[in-house]
Design brief:
The protein is an alpha+beta fold. It has 3 domains: 190 residues, Orthogonal Bundle (Penicillin binding protein transpeptidase fold); 70 residues, no CATH class; 306 residues, DD-peptidase/beta-lactamase superfamily (Beta-lactamase, 3-Layer(aba) Sandwich), CATH 3.40.710. Helices cover 44% and strands 11% of the residues. The protein is built from 28 helices and 18 strands. The strands form 6 sheets. Strands 2-1-3-13-14 form a 5-stranded mixed sheet, covered by helices on one side. A 5-stranded antiparallel sheet has the order 7-6-18-17-16, with helices on both faces.
């Protein structure tokens, strides 16, 4: 070929070369322009620097026990509680990187090699999305559109945001953000909720195969759902394990062993009506809403100016001890199951035609049912929907499929068909219970059980309900007599009929109280024995001596601030109080006369750990140390020789009440215990207040209506209905030495002018006191 021809051919190729480079450069410029346009928001709003630094995600408020356990959460759609990278187990991080982004630590948000592979093989050999891109999609882009153009622009936005995330955050922060944001299904938002819900443990406790399952769910948590598609989820888990072996995070032997292992799911749903301390959590929810109303949020521009307990990720530190709470709930369940069985035996249709009500006529029963019907959620809902009263009433007689509470079912509920009116009557057959436990020196509430089962009985009898206190009110009368009149536990009064005439102490008519058995022994009781045996006539004489007004004054100083009539009959516990109030009041006796208002929340933090609230104790000196100790000594007599004596002994197998209700409850406590039983008229309410030096606990048992009760005092007294719950609870508390529940005696004041040793005469007590004083004066 001639030089002329060669030159001509070269000249002919030059336009093609020129246009190739023009097109190539144009392509590069187009790509750059597209990314610039995306970053400028041409394809939709892009997150600002501030949003990248503070991505807005809905975070659940976490309720934390005094021993560091999560009691529950408040959330709407997102049950999310973020955790730091340091709290993620290494096997989880390794599984994530091996499966989702093997070159995660090498790229800066976009994996070019992975992109080219996905483009060349059309995605058949793995996707191109890095962990950073997936996080960008979760935080800012959203679900991939089915429109091709929109899907492409979304992908471009992901790339841009991913590179920005890589500049703003470390690799470790990106991993923790991604695992915290992902929705694992079944209310498991974020890795912490997923670990708790699917395996019942915190993330650091996850095994390799458990981490692999959760990472496998990242592909599609709806599809790979272990509760619905266990085998499919297991296969996906095994794929993750294979990836971990491929990238040398585990050996092939370990992979083979784990692939052969079964899916060990331990499902623990987190809902508002289930889980530990459900009644307390519902109380706390109301408390937090009141706190939020009084404490505005220092909001950033564009944010809410009020805290939201469902979205803002608050941490609420409570005084509840998760171990003591579990013991309390178990004690209520164990005893109430047995007690309810005995109630059903005594209240069959044959034995009691008006069951579950005792000694009521048809009109009285009709009135109770009418009130219950109008107070029901069904009635309110239909009325709000504009239904007529006739339509509403008719609906209560239509058989309806429903799930109801049932002690005999393993899940404590059963599916059945009954009318709504019948279901109201059905639920009224169940005895209810409540208990609260508090550290008297600090006011810290350690356990709170408002009922049998929050899902089916949502009325909280700890703080919402108020019932007659019965004989648990008597210690306040004795305290007033000792404080005001310098009475001694060793003073004596006769058990004879005693009347306070009309007009005295504001009494509208003569008041002549009887003892619970309707008899008068005629014997003389020390005040200690009289309180131990709950002798009404002695209490009547004491309130006549001291007067109702000083009793009411002391009671109100102890936190029982309801409107209490200043009449003698209050001595036998006619006023209504709730368990919360009674425990707080009794706490002053154990705390040397100082009342400490019960406290449930110690601190609140925002999602960043900034302290928003710290509690300040509310205390009040009510009684002197020696009066408080004299009262403790009086109430120790209740458990040593009075109505609470069964705490000290194993059960008498010849007595059917023990056989049927309390078999297997060999209490046999030997440590000092102060307490008081209480039983109201017709056995409608059973109480027990029990104290050791560092724990005061109150228990109440009764029906929703006062007409639901045992007919006999044998079954219906506080010692049978309420005391066993306290005993079971304390047995378990003492079994755990880490709880440090006191077995020692109560602290006796150094100066004690009130005689409490009733085994010696008053003269001997005075001589001993003078001898002690003389010895104290000697200088050895």
């Amino acid at each position: 070929m001639s030089k002329k021809t060669q030159k001509k051919n070269t000249k002919g190729f030059w336009p093609f070369i020129k246009w190739f480079w023009i097109l190539f450069a144009s392509g590069i410029l187009a790509v750059v322009l597209i990314f610039l346009l995306a970053s400028w928001g041409a394809f939709g709003e892009m997150p600002t620097f501030e949003r990248l630094e503070n991505p807005q995600t809905n975070l659940a408020t976490e309720i934390i026990s005094s021993d560091g356990k999560t009691l529950g959460k408040y959330y709407l759609d997102d049950n999310r509680t973020p955790i730091a990278y340091e709290d993620l187990p290494e096997n989880l991080v390794n599984a994530l990187v091996a499966t989702e982004d093997a070159r995660f630590y090498e790229h800066s948000g976009i994996d070019a090699r992975g992109f080219l592979r996905a483009l060349f093989f059309l995605g058949t050999r793995g996707g191109a999305s890095t962990i950073s891109q997936q996080l960008a999609r979760q935080l800012f882009v959203g679900v991939r559109s089915r429109n091709v153009f929109e899907a492409v622009t979304q992908k471009i936005k992901e790339w841009v945001i991913a590179t920005r995330l890589e500049r703003n955050y470390t690799k470790e922060e990106i991993i923790s953000m991604y695992l915290n944001i992902y929705d694992f299904g079944n209310n498991a938002d974020g890795i912490r909720s997923a670990a708790r819900i699917y395996f019942g443990k915190e993330p650091p406790e996850l095994k390799t195969e458990e981490s692999a399952m959760l990472v496998g769910m990242l592909k599609n948590s709806s599809l790979f759902n272990p509760l619905r598609r266990e085998e499919m989820t297991k296969d996906r888990r095994n794929t993750v394990l294979a990836q971990m072996a491929k990238y040398d995070y585990i050996t092939e032997d370990v992979r083979d062993s784990l692939i052969a292992s079964k899916m060990d799911i331990n499902y623990n749903p987190e809902s508002h009506s289930q889980g530990p301390a459900a009644y307390f959590r519902m109380y706390l929810q109301r408390w937090l809403k009141e706190w939020i109303a009084e404490n505005p949020k220092p909001a950033l521009k564009g944010e809410r100016d009020t805290w939201n307990i469902y979205l803002d990720g608050l941490k609420v530190y409570t005084t509840i001890d998760s171990r003591m709470q579990a013991n309390a709930e178990a004690a209520v369940q164990a005893h109430m199951n047995k007690l309810q069985k005995e109630y059903f035996v005594q209240n069959t249709q044959q034995r009691n035609p008006t069951t579950p009500f005792v000694d009521l006529n048809s009109e009285e029963i009709k009135g109770i049912m009418e009130r219950a019907m109008k107070n029901s959620a069904r009635w309110r809902g239909m009325k709000d929907a504009g239904k007529s009263e006739k339509e509403i009433r008719e609906s209560f007689n239509v058989p309806t499929e429903m799930t109801v509470f049932d002690w005999n079912a393993s899940t404590k509920e059963k599916d059945t068909l009954m009318t709504p009116l019948d279901s109201i009557r059905y639920y009224k057959t169940f005895l209810r219970a409540a208990m609260m436990s508090m550290e008297p020196q600090t006011g810290h509430v350690k356990a709170w059980v408002g009922g049998l089962n929050y899902r089916h009985f949502q009325y909280d009898n700890v703080i919402q309900g108020a019932r007659q206190a019965g004989s648990t009110f008597k210690p306040f009368v004795y305290a007033a007599a000792i404080d005001q009149l310098r009475r001694s536990p060793c003073d004596t009064l006769p058990d004879t009929q005693y009347c306070i005439e009309a007009g005295k102490h504001g009494n509208p008519e003569p008041w002549c109280p009887k003892n619970s058995d309707g008899k008068y022994s005629g014997r003389t009781y020390t005040l200690k024995d009289a309180l131990a045996n709950s002798v009404n006539t002695v209490t009547a004489q004491l309130i006549d001596e001291v007067g109702p007004r000083p009793v009411v004054s002391i009671v109100k100083s102890l936190g029982l601030t309801r409107d209490i009539p200043e009449v003698p009959s209050i001595a036998l516990g006619t006023p209504d109080f709730n368990v919360y109030e009674m425990v707080g009041a009794y706490g002053a006796f154990a705390n040397q006369g100082v009342y400490v208002k019960p406290v449930m929340v110690t601190r609140i933090e925002d999602k960043n750990g900034t302290v928003l609230y710290e509690y300040t104790p509310e205390t009040k000196d009510v009684l002197s140390k020696e009066v408080a100790y004299a009262m403790i000594d009086l109430m120790k007599g209740v458990t040593e020789g009075g109505s609470g004596t069964r705490l000290r002994h194993s059960m008498n197998k010849d007595n059917r009440v023990y056989q049927e209700i309390m078999t297997g409850y060999p209490y046999q406590f030997t440590n000092p215990i102060a307490g008081k039983t209480g039983t109201t008229q017709n056995q409608s309410d059973g109480w027990f207040m029990g104290m050791v030096p560092n724990l005061v606990t109150g228990v109440w048992v009764g029906g929703e209506d006062r007409a639901t009760h045992f007919k006999s005092i044998l079954y219906g007294q506080g010692a049978s209905m309420a005391l066993p719950i306290w005993a079971l609870y304390m047995k378990e508390n003492y079994a755990n030495s880490d709880l440090n529940i006191s077995k020692e005696d109560f602290v006796k004041p150094e100066e004690m002018s009130i005689r409490i040793d009733c085994d010696i005469s008053e003269e001997e007590a005075e001589q001993n006191k003078e001898l002690e004083d003389d010895l104290d004066d000697l200088d050895f």
